[in-house]
Amino acid sequence: MKWPLQKTSRIAQHLSIVLSIMLFYSSASQAQDDIVVIAHHNVKAQDLSTSKVKSIFGMRTRTWSDGLAIKVFVLADSNPMHIGFSKGILNTYPYNLRRIWDRRVYSGTGLAPETVNNEKEMLALIATTPNAIGYVYASNVDINVKILRIR
Fold this sequence. Notes:
- By secondary structure, the chain is α/β, with parallel strands linked by helices.
- The chain contains five helices and six strands; from the N terminus they run H-E-E-H-E-H-H-E-H-E-E.
């Protein structure tokens, strides 16, 4: 039995729409889950507001709520994960962050975060540095660090 051409084209259109929706939702959830903020296990916070994350990585907030100094780790400005973190979570560009950090350092009012070479080094340093915070791809998180939810 042959299907009428109009019926097969409608089915193809519906399948195309369904596939587009599936791809959209899978890529959207992947994009939200790609980069996570991580911390040393001694950090008491379980979650942070977006504004708090911006303040910490902008080096305005220097201590945790219990008064302990925050140690911030970041990747190089040109690293694709750092660019994704800056744009996706902090809503800014890496060059803006660099300008903020440089202004604080040169004016003597603050410090810049410590730059690490790669994600593996980031995980190792956060796992061994009390009060540390940084970010990695969710798929690479291990048991030596904890994920801080962003609300």
